[in-house]
Design brief:
Blueprint: H1 2-25, H2 27-30, H3 35-69, H4 74-104, H5 110-118, H6 120-125, H7 129-144, H8 146-149
Helix pairs in contact: 1-3, 3-4
């Protein structure tokens, strides 16, 4: 259970670092604000980060309880699959948010999903060519890497 708690706080740290990277990437916009405002952004976003990390770790915590009664290799396989899938989705979300903010002028939210579902080709037409080429290559590289295919426990 301690490992799951550590994973929870690692996800919180990932969200906080993602927010800080976003602020640094757009330092031409946010650079005029003092560092205290940047820390205020991180502090006020912390409840959201804690909640999102909790949503991500809810299923692994429930699986951990199930594992108490039903031992086996399924537990490790599930955790590897779940954490790699969630990590991939979170990183893709961060990167999309990071790059699309420059074009749209607002962070990703439900509006972007509605726009994408209404006209996906129009939405993809706004993305730079290098991003459209890099996304499938990076995804395939991640999915086909030896560590993703054969999930080995950390030693």
């Amino acid at each position: 259970m301690l490992k799951k708690t550590i994973l929870y706080f690692l996800f919180v740290l990932l969200f906080v670092v993602g927010k800080f990277v976003f602020l640094c990437y757009y330092s031409d916009i946010f650079g005029d604000y003092p560092m205290s405002d940047w820390m205020s952004v991180l502090w006020h976003g912390l409840p959201h980060d804690l909640t999102c990390a909790g949503y991500i770790m809810a299923l692994p915590f429930l699986v951990e309880l199930w594992y108490i009664w039903y031992k086996g290799e399924w537990h490790r396989a599930f955790m590897c699959f779940w954490l790699r899938l969630v990590l991939l989705l979170v990183v893709v979300d961060f990167l999309c948010d990071l790059f699309l903010y420059g074009y749209w002028g607002f962070r990703l939210d439900q509006t972007a999903l509605t726009y994408f579902l209404d006209s996906p080709w129009k939405c993809l037409g706004q993305a730079p060519l290098w991003m459209l080429c890099a996304a499938p290559v990076l995804s395939a590289g991640y999915c086909l890497s030896p560590s993703a295919v054969a999930c080995r426990p950390l030693r």
